[in-house]
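Order emerges. One example.
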Amino acid sequence: MIETRRFDDEAAWIGAVLADAAGAVQEAEAEGRRAVLCLAGGRTPEPAYRAVAAWLAARARGPGRPARPVLLVPGDERLEPRGPSDLNDTMLRRAFAPALDLGAAELAAWNVSAGERAAVAAMAALVASIASGMPSAAPLFDRCYLGLGADGHVAGVFPGSPAARRAGSRSAPIAVAGTAPEEPRARVSLSLPTLASTRGTRFIVRAAGKEDALRRLASGDPACPAVAAAAEGALAFVLARQARP
């Protein structure tokens, strides 16, 4: 089951994500590992990412600076964006700018300019390199922060797609190409098994328009791709109201 934690206050919602991310980073560093966070794109998580970036930047400016930057891995990307503002990379670079500028974080972007096959192959190689430095069967990510579509899609994996149908397959690839039902349609994404290879799945959701998807997620609906992306003990941080203008 996926536990849902609801917040009526945006600051508390952001604080919950920040505390979770900080705990994951500190746990990895205490174990002598480089922290690796998988990140959703879109507009919803940006305020929380800004808080995480500010925390990382503050640590970098203080004593006892961590030896290695936190690695940020986008879960998916628009392959043929209408403009730079459509790219998850644009939002992530904006949100994490303080940490990126200080070398406290490193962003592993999708190389969409090279085309679908090259983008998928390059991200698969990156994820494989992360896995190569870990014990066998260890999770790839310290946290995987995911969004949730109204249709139950997650990252670039949509209901009924080949990637969704292969969720439980042992031969599922690390990264996949897919098609969204709306523009920009062409997407590249980590596969559902790759997304689920994490020490903690956290869905970051604004409730408006997502209540049905949240019910499907909480009930474990097998037709909901987000369910297959969730590791054991997954949480959903849900902002129950819209932010004030």
Observations:
- Strands lie at 3-7, 36-39, 70-74, 76-78, 105-107, 143-146, 175-179, 186-190, 201-206, 235-239.
- Residues 17 and 48 are 6 Å apart (CA to CA).
